[in-house]
Write a structure and sequence with these properties.
With 255 residues, the chain is α+β, with helices and mostly antiparallel strands. It is built from three helices and eleven strands; from the N terminus they run H-E-E-E-E-E-E-E-E-E-E-E-H-H. A hairpin with a 7-residue loop joins strand 8 and strand 9. The longest helix has 24 residues.
Length: 255
């Protein structure tokens, strides 16, 4: 008697079903790995949300960070660990919050920033990615206008200082920030402005998001030759917040 292993069994059907099972398990795995950041979900008041979605949270995993920067364990329930001077306009989730302090500084709404690590972003070799052009003589302005020594004009028309340097992303060879040397009337020292929020004209650099009175409160960078991830977020948030909070006319509804 001959032994029939498969008989009328459909190998093609088996193959397709194995593929779909594998594909479903792959989606389940990828979705759980995607939940290592931003989870567990929180309500607007910072408490843990009752509904975390259809997928269970993955087990905590510890990752070793490159360039001897320690380790990080995710997911975790640490949250942001900071309070923002805002109040809810409704007890229900999803309603807007209103600022209760200085909206330009408190980190709410358009001026929000994330509590990133207070260390500079590094390239593949472990060197700070963003550095002032004056720190590397190999960089030159090969096209367009060089804004250095141009006056800086704020959103209210005040000339607050001049551009003293350009900060470049060395691996990307892209200008990320302009450095402003403030005039005595508007503060002391220098401040950075994101390149995307400055417009270089023929004879000036215009920054419309904030006014002259605000430049002294732009978050400072602690080092002359590097800027940290946390400083970058705070600097960008301050200028972005000015688009709404720099004056009452911007904050009020349009009529």
């Amino acid at each position: 008697m001959d032994l029939i292993l498969f008989g009328n069994f459909d190998l093609a059907s088996l193959s397709i079903w194995l593929f779909w099972i594998f594909f479903a398990l792959l989606i389940f795995y990828i979705q759980r790995e995607n939940m290592r950041e931003g989870y567990p979900l929180e309500n607007d008041d910072g408490s843990e949300a009752a509904n975390q979605g259809p997928f269970p949270l993955p087990e905590a995993k510890t990752f070793d960070l490159p360039h001897a920067r320690g380790e990080v364990t995710v997911p975790n329930a640490n949250g942001e660990g900071r309070s923002v001077a805002v109040e809810q306009t409704s007890v229900a989730n999803g309603y807007p919050f209103e600022p209760t302090g200085d909206p330009m500084k408190d980190g709410g709404g358009p001026a929000s920033w994330a509590p990133r690590r207070d260390v500079p972003e590094l390239d593949g070799q472990g060197h700070p990615k963003i550095i002032p052009m004056s720190a590397n003589s190999k960089f030159v302005v090969s096209a367009g206008r060089d804004p250095r020594d141009m006056p800086v004009v704020a959103g209210d028309g005040e000339v607050v200082g001049k551009i003293s340097d350009m900060w470049v992303d060395e691996p990307e060879q892209l200008v990320r920030y302009l450095e402003i040397e403030l005039g005595k009337k508007y503060g002391e020292g220098s401040r950075l402005v994101p390149m995307t929020l400055a417009k270089i004209h023929k004879d000036k650099v215009a920054i419309k998001s904030i006014f002259g009175e605000h430049f002294n409160d732009v978050p400072k960078h602690s080092s002359k030759n590097q800027v940290t991830l946390l400083e970058e977020d705070k600097i960008s948030a301050y200028y972005a917040g000015g688009n709404m909070y720099a004056s009452q006319s911007r904050f009020a509804p349009l009529t």
